[in-house]
Amino acid sequence: NFDVQNSHNCGQGTNMSCGQNVENNGAQNAETSSHYTPPTSHCSRGITLIALIITIVIMLILAGITINLTLGENGIFQKAKLAKQNYELASAEEKLEMDLAICEMGGTVEATMEEYLLEDLNGLEMYNRHPYNPESDAVTAQTTEAAVVVGGKVYCVYLDNILDGTVTNKIKVVLEEGNNIMMGDTNASSEYGWLGTGIFRESISSITFLNNKPTDCNEFNSRDITAKGHNNQNPVFCKWTVNAENNELYDIEIGANGGVIAPINCKSLFRSINTKYIDMDNNFYTKNVVNMDSMFRGNGSLSITFGKNFDTSSVENMYMMFGYAINLKKLDLSLAMFNTENVKNMGNLFTHTHVLEELKLGNDFDTSNTESMDAMFYAIYELTDLELGQKFTIKNINSVNAIFFNSDKLQRLDLGILGIERRNNLVITNWFSVGVNCNIYVANQDVANWLHPYKVNNTIIVK
Fold first, then answer.
1. How far apart, in whole angstroms, are the C-alpha atoms of residue 336 and residue 177?
2. What is the chain's Cα-based Rg?
3. Residues 280, 294: Cα–Cα separation, whole Å
4. Cα separation, 24 vs 2, whole angstroms
5. Each residue of 207-228: pLDDT tens digit?
6. Cα 393 from chain centroid?
7. The dihedral of CA 237, 242, 248, 252: what is its sign?
8. What CA–CA distance (Å, rounded) separates 183 from 268?
9. What is the DSSP string of 28-50?
10. Mapping DSSP to helix (H, G, I), strand (E, B) and coil, where does residue 203 land?
11. Has residue 19 got a pLDDT over 50?
12. N or C: which terminal CB in the chain sees fewer CB atoms within 10 Å?
């Protein structure tokens, strides 16, 4: 009864009141709806901050990637720089190969060493061959010989002076192959001593080549003299020992396993060394040598033993090779491979070997490509007999001056074939000294007739 009554009363007695309340509430809601602000959530604020941080991190990562692609080790700029360097290196290598081909055909490169090394070959690995100060390998404007390394191959680049015996701007490029190659020494008065050993040329008593490393080498009595630019898989050592008879002189031993390969450029290698002897004993290999200019010039040796591996078949320059070797009494080149078919310059080859009594040239003494032989046998005072062999010719010579002049004891001279194909263009002066009475043997009457005006007091005999 209570519930029904209340419900009835509500339905009748309070009906208006309830409707008014509802109406009033609706009006209030309508009035305030335009100013409604939903409640703030801490969770939504955290999500917004995380999103911002992630965005920044992604932007930083993208920026880093962009910078790395542009400026990094493998970036665009670095790749462009490397491409430029590789192009320059490839161009330098190509020029080196082209110049090598030119030189192999007998030509030379017209440039100064400074231009060629520091500009044309810029970027290639290279070493200064002179001086022999271990701290001075860098190539400079004063460099006269360098080793240039490309792809494991070593090229010897040096100033060439084939015909006139003077330094010119003509450059020679030669491929230098082998491991046990000794360095050269073109500086006859180096402040570092011969081959950088600190032993000066005038203090050397003897030189002996070995087919192995000298025994008992240490930092005080020896030095690695492997040619710069080559790896030291089979190094060449030079050892010096105080001479037993004179403690101011030194005996030198040079050796490597399998013997010693001579440098491409042997210019002045033994020049002005006052040794009693030089003994190569088949352990000094010269097959690759191109330049022997002044190699034994002014050498004081009483004897030189060459051996069969002293091979001159690649040599182009023998200018003054034995000139002024004033103590040599006997020189037997027939036991070596004294092949001179590629030699262009024989000027002063044996000049002023004053006491030389016996000279044997062998069967391969070939002058078919020789362009200069002025004073070749000049002033050999004691020589009485000279046979030049069947390959001696002057067919490519433009002038032959004083070739036998002042060799006044000559009694027999065999001129071989003496090719005179260029007789009309040949200039001959002072072949023989006045007053000398020598029998000159020639191949035929044609040569005898041509030589007759120059014979002075000598007798020409057709073989």
1. 22
2. 44
3. 18
4. 30
5. 999 999 999 999 999 999 999 8
6. 34
7. negative
8. 12
9. HHHHHGGG--PPP-HHHHHHHHH
10. helix
11. no
12. N
